[in-house]
Structure formats: C-alpha cells, structure tokens
Design a protein that fits this description.
This protein is 18% helix and 51% strand. The protein has one helix and five strands. A hairpin with a 2-residue loop joins strand 2 and strand 3. The radius of gyration is 15 Å and the shape is elongated.
Length: 99
C-alpha cells in the first residue's frame, strides 16, 4: 500500500484538530475514524451533542478506477444543530503533481 499522506499533511491535520479543540474548550470528546486509506476524521461531541468535524481526504479523479491522487484536502467544520448542517471554517488543499 502506498503512503498517501505526507508528514506535512499529518501536521496540518493535527494543527486543525488542536485549533478546533481549543475553540470548543473543555469537556468536548474527540472520536477518531478512518475510512480506507484515503480519509481520516476527528469528530467533536459534548454531552451527546455533535459540535464539529475535522477531516483529511485524498481526492482522486473518480472517473477512473485506479486514478492517482490529485490532492490532499484538509477541512474543518462546525455543526449547526438548528439547521442540521455543517459550516466550513477552514480548508487547505495540497495539489499533487502526477507524473
């Protein structure tokens, strides 16, 4: 299996998670999850209420089964309970030059 995320990608993701935890304050619970080898996410909850999500995703050209990774996208969202939707708070995109 190829390594998809670089050390810089992981550092960027960790920095976003730390910033999110800092803004939410004490008492928020973090739950980490991975989907395959292309997505890592951390969900923030407090007393059963979902608060925020930070994710790092390796994006491909989905028109091709074995397409190369085109970009690593790290996003930070907060969850709006009133409307039941996420609000984007930050996005960092690292494009990958395929040879």
């Amino acid at each position: 299996m190829d390594v998809i995320f670089s050390k810089d990608d992981v550092k960027t993701f960790q920095d976003m998670v730390i910033d999110c935890a800092w803004e939410l304050g004490k008492g928020s619970k973090q739950t980490s999850r991975t989907r395959g080898n292309h997505t890592v996410e951390v969900s923030f909850d407090r007393k059963g209420k979902h608060l925020a999500l930070v994710e790092m995703v390796a994006h491909r050209d989905y028109g091709h089964i074995e397409a190369p990774i085109e970009a690593i996208v790290t996003r930070r969202y907060t969850f709006n309970d009133r409307f039941g939707e996420y609000r984007l708070h930050g996005e960092i995109i690292r494009k990958i030059e395929n040879k």
